[in-house]
Amino acid sequence: METTLDILKAVSDKNRLRVVAALSRYDELCACQITELLEVSGATVSRHLGILQKAGLLDSRKDGRWVYFKLARPTGTDPFFQWLETTFAGSSELRADLEALEKIVGITREDLCRQQRGEACCPK
């Protein structure tokens, strides 16, 4: 029961639900892409991602300076994710997020980093 409660608490925030929705459409996203999508600070995104990971909803991997996230589907959560998919299907907000993500994934990680943190982050 604790796992179920952790999952429900984790997705009870709009931005965390947006992350889950985005990752249900993309196999994997970089933290910088998620930051760009949510339009909040990196620290806020990090906190949201940590909560989702702690609930068992996200897996991550590090590749150099980049951290990538993908959905983890804990055992027994298939009905939950099916329900979310059905719920997301008619959402105009999700449609807008997906349109934004199409543009975001077309930008290199380095360029996103420069946009978010300045030139010193990823010098050319």
Automatic annotation (TrEMBL):
Keyword terms: DNA-binding, Transcription, Transcription regulation
Statement: the UniProt record of this protein carries the keyword Transcription: yes
Ranges of residues in domain HTH arsR-type: 1-95
PROSITE patterns listed in its UniProt record: HTH_ARSR_2
One GO molecular-function entry: DNA binding
Domain of life (superkingdom): Bacteria
NCBIfam families: HTH_metalloreg
PANTHER family: ARSENICAL RESISTANCE OPERON REPRESSOR, TRANSCRIPTIONAL REGULATOR, ARSR FAMILY
Name of the protein in question: Arsenic resistance transcriptional regulator ArsR1
Organism ancestry: Bacteria, Pseudomonadati, Kiritimatiellota, Kiritimatiellia, Kiritimatiellales
Gene: arsR1_2
